[in-house]
Amino acid sequence: MRPNRFTLRRSPAAIAAVVLAALLATAAPTAQAAGATTPVAAAAAAPDIPLANVKAHLSQFSTIAANNGGNRAHGRPGYKASVDYVKAKLDAAGYTTTVQQFTSNGATGYNLIADWPGGDPNEVLMAGAHLDSVSSGAGINDNASGSAAVLETALAVSRAGYQPDKHLRFAWWGAEELGLVGSRFYVNNLPSAERSKLSGYLNFDMIGSPNAGYFVYDDDPVIEKTFKDYFAGLGVPTEIETEGDGRSDHAPFKSAGVPVGGLFTGAGYTKSAAQAQKWGGTAGQAFDRCYHSSCDNLGNINDTALDRNSDAAAHAIWTLSADSTGEPPADDVYSNPTRVAIPDAGSAVTSSIAVTGRTGNAPAALQVGVDIKHTWRGDLVIDLLAPDGTAYRLKNPSSGDSADNVVATYTVNASDKAANGEWKLRVQDVARYDTGYIDGWKLTF
Ligand code: TRP
Ligand code: ZN
Ligand code: CA
């Protein structure tokens, strides 16, 4: 739960709707009426992932290997240097990063997990790549390629200020080359309640093979179709991945019942004549002749394959992070239930809600739930104050309105205000005799 001076409750939209309906039953708001439904924007299209950016990460991984004995293997300094490189980029982009330690083969291993703030915490889409190489080389196709594509997609999410319905989590796994050790450790240590929130895991391991094929994992049908549709749109034929299902980090997720999928351009298998016909390249030669060898260096990359697969990764992450249930995402509700007396024909009083831990601005349809008990509500003038002091009039006084109470939900377009900060409800009683108090209020982002 986020730190907050008052209660922060994440409630399912269904519950919010019931509460809203209950409020509306007794409400007589004079501002815009609360909408019964939350408008759900169509999923935004993924941006193009710049190949130059992906390749710049490959160069950095190559340099890291060169400076650390020629590899980025588990238990070697080049691995930890790779983690530090990726983590620094993510931290600067606004991610919440976690380094998870484990032990394998007598050496400390590291998984790097990066959460993008926001989204429905009950629907988490993950994408990952193994960050370790074998000890014989720098591991540029295997698997700086997948690591760089996932990193650049995560950075694109930040650049776009993308706020998907689902929560996004990116991962870089340690010790894949020792037998999927890091990803298995992560899955085994994830509480089952957290595991059941994973709506999918997308894996990117070897996506720039020099003699590339275009392989899509034959796993979850929705994920598989998302990738296939992307390549179909490019006019690039795909095949089902057959070079060993279970040979990469999606396997532990799949075993735990998480829907998985991924992309692959081939390792030690040989490209057939038919495959060379449809994809180009060299028949009778391995997809990656440098697989697990010292020549898996910067020259061991097919730029076109790396570019297409990076764009496909971003496309899938954008598309699959749109809500699949058709319901709006869970709302974040911040409330202050403290009673505040409103002096009769007196000065204005306020009640505050401190909002923290959000990214970006408040929504265009910020919901302000007001619960004021009063014996003549016509006496009351009510404003919402944004953190910068801007006042939004929610209700004007109207001397003839003798009804009790203001129990209403108002909608305010606060999309030009930062979400974080201290929001206030300001209430003034402007006419004598009848009195009341703020019985609580809430903000739904
Ligand atoms: N990193 C994997 C490995 O070393 C490469 C690999 C082989 C792979 N077959 C695969 C990755 C199938 C994904 C799917 O074994
Ligand atoms: Zn490998
Ligand atoms: Ca009064």
From TrEMBL:
- Supply the Gene3D superfamilies for this chain: Galactose-binding domain-like, Zn peptidases
Please state which protein family the record places this protein in: Belongs to the peptidase M28 family. M28A subfamily.
Q: Where is the P/Homo B domain?
A: 326-445
Q: Which PANTHER family match?
A: METALLOPEPTIDASE M28 FAMILY MEMBER (PTHR12147), PEPTIDASE M28 DOMAIN-CONTAINING PROTEIN (PTHR12147:SF26)
Q: What is this protein called?
A: M28 family metallopeptidase
Top-rank taxon of the source lineage equals Bacteria
Alphabetized SUPFAM superfamilies for the sequence: Galactose-binding domain-like, Zn-dependent exopeptidases
Q: Which UniProt keywords apply?
A: Hydrolase, Metal-binding, Protease, Signal, Zinc
